[in-house]
Amino acid sequence: MLVGAAEGAGRAVAGRCHGTGTGTGTDTNTGTGTGTGTEGCRGTERFHGTGSHPGTGSGPGTRRPRVARQARGPARVTAPTRHSLAVMRVDYSPGSIDPGSFYRLLTAVIVPRPIAWVSTLTADGETANLAPHSFFTVASTDPPVVQFTSVGRKDSLRNVEATGEFVVNIASEPFLDQINETATDFPRDKGEFDAVGIGTEPSLRVKPPRVASSPVALECTLHATLGLGNSTVVFGRVVHAAVSEEVLVDGDPDIRRLRPLARLGKNEWGTVGELHERARIPYRDWERRN
Ligand SMILES: Cc1cc2nc3c(=O)[nH]c(=O)nc-3n(C[C@H](O)[C@H](O)[C@H](O)COP(=O)(O)O)c2cc1C
Fold first, then answer.
1. CATH 2.30.110.10 residue window(s) in the chain
2. pLDDT, greater one: 85 or 268
């Protein structure tokens, strides 16, 4: 399992303090590039990257001594540095600490993450695979495209590449333990639906089955994959959405009925907490008010 594997990675503190100061962007990398497939993009379209990194850069400043820490959690560049904001921050440099530690930092702060419970089929159609992926979001609304990221080459990714199809089943609160069980690293020929005992129902537009108990199934065809370092981002064109009547209120999915789970840092999971409603403020109203 991704989380376990990453946690198993070393926790060595190897970061460097990069000093104090309020830099003004002198380390800016402002290149705009059009990368055309050099990072392993495959699929129906080419990936055109536009990279612009404004760089708020902290200046070289005064180097402070390093202090090793044994505490759990991401390896830290331990000397706090004072920035122009009147807060003390701890700086982390991805180049200087091990990737496992930086992974732990990212997954602890980019939270909460929705969970795509991804069902796929092997090329021979014999084995139905199911695995949670929390690096998951909407990539485009028109056409509707969703994306999930496989860290490493896992069965879900292999099946999508081989068949060009998958289903995103929304991970709902009552199924937390089942979802976690499907993250077990079963052998490739052992499908999680059977192993964990999860009921299927046929999809309408693709071959991989839906999770019968999941309130929402997004049936997808492969749009493109993008290789990025140790990971592959999978983009899926949503060709059909099937939503349980039970989660609809006045025709819209209702959060209190959907009860989506979220992935947090470490081995933590979250549920929906307090809700707050705010209407967007059109600029003309903003002007009147301020
Ligand atoms: C809640 C949760 C979220 C996860 N998110 C991801 C993810 O975004 N990407 C990933 O590669 N693995 C993720 N994993 C780990 C995979 O689910 C795990 O490696 C699984 O065995 C992959 O199954 P597969 O080989 O059948 O595709 C997650 C695990 C859990 C429990």
1. 113-270
2. 268
pLDDT in tens, 205-219: 999 999 999 999 999
Q: Which of 134, 153, 166 to mutate to test the pocket of ligand 1 (most atoms within 8 A of CB)?
A: 134
205 lines ligand 1 (CB under 6 A): no
Q: Is the pLDDT of residue 36 over 90?
A: no
Q: What is the mean pLDDT of residues 191-202?
A: 98
* Fold held by 113-270: Pnp Oxidase; Chain A (2.30.110)
pTM: 0.76
Q: Among the atoms of ligand 1, which is closest to the Cα of residue 5?
A: 19
Ligand 1 contact via 268 beta carbon (within 6 Å): no
Tokens describing residue 33: 């590039």
